[in-house]
Amino acid sequence: MWSILKGEWRKLKRCQILLVGIVALALCPVVQYGTQLIINPEIRDPNYNFVSLFASVIWGNTQIFLPISLVMTGGWLIDREYTNDTMKNLLTVPVPYPRLLGGKLIVIISLSLLFGVYSVAVTILTGTIAGLEGFSVFVLLQQGIQVIAAAFNTCLVCMPMILIFGQMRGAYLGGSLLTFFLGYCILFFKSGFLLSAYPFSAALILAGFDMQAYNGAAQSPSILLALLGIAAALVLTMVILLLSHPGSKAGDNKKKKVRKGRGRRRAK
């Protein structure tokens, strides 16, 4: 497994799509703060400070930026084995295919934590340049941990989409857009079962995000339902992993290579 993880980290160095996530997460606090500057003064928050900015970043990351970045990058890690025609080489290694995919998911989970740390740094930089008040070590620790926890939980929710669209040749870009839509839907769940159990909402709730204060939720969310929502995403991920197998295209390419090799030997 360690060899798989090291190999996947090396592949990320050549992943230009990773720049999409880096730029998107850097733009998130800028967009959130800029929104405060352009909205009508009647609905503008006069006490907008570092805590408010961190809350906006957590919301924006979970709803838009992280789902797109994680599914796009994770899907690319899986899809490239087919597009670069390297899957036929991996099939000769005595490693179960689900384990190979599991190694890719572990790398994406680690990347989500790095994205969280990076997002905290960019948020602090944005708030400092904007001259926001309310920054302290306590705010940094509390809000920073919340940003990283939300990024981790969001990655858990996105894993089924990474596996599904990563194994559909060239579909990971469409999968990232669909995941963005699913993340955006948390805006509409303000009460009832889906307020807590909807996986993207659960990612925020388990990170300690105040849905009532930010999303205008009509009732207090349930931690138990949030746990069930995340658990459902994890169970779905395990089912997809167990049912995953290399595509027929990789197998066909491998057979063609073997046939060509036999033909050459016969010619000799």
Fold and architecture overview:
The protein is mainly alpha-helical and 268 residues long. It has one domain (2-263). 76% of the residues lie in helices and 0% in strands. The protein is built from twelve helices and no strands. It has helices at 2-12, 18-38, 50-83, 87-90, 97-130, 137-166, 172-184, 193-197, 199-206, 211-214, 223-243, 248-267. Helix 1 (2-12) crosses helix 5 (97-130) and helix 5 (97-130) runs antiparallel to helix 6.
Keywords:
268 residues; mainly alpha; 0% strand; disordered C terminus
Helix-strand layout with pairing:
Blueprint: H1 2-12, H2 18-38, H3 50-83, H4 87-90, H5 97-130, H6 137-166, H7 172-184, H8 193-197, H9 199-206, H10 211-214, H11 223-243, H12 248-267
Number of helices: 12
Number of self-contained structural domains: 1
Helix-strand topology string: HHHHHHHHHHHH
The radius of gyration computed from the alpha-carbon positions, rounded to a whole number of angstroms, is: 21 Å
Shape: globular
Distance between the termini: 40 Å
Mean pLDDT: 83
Strands, count: 0
Strand content: under 5%
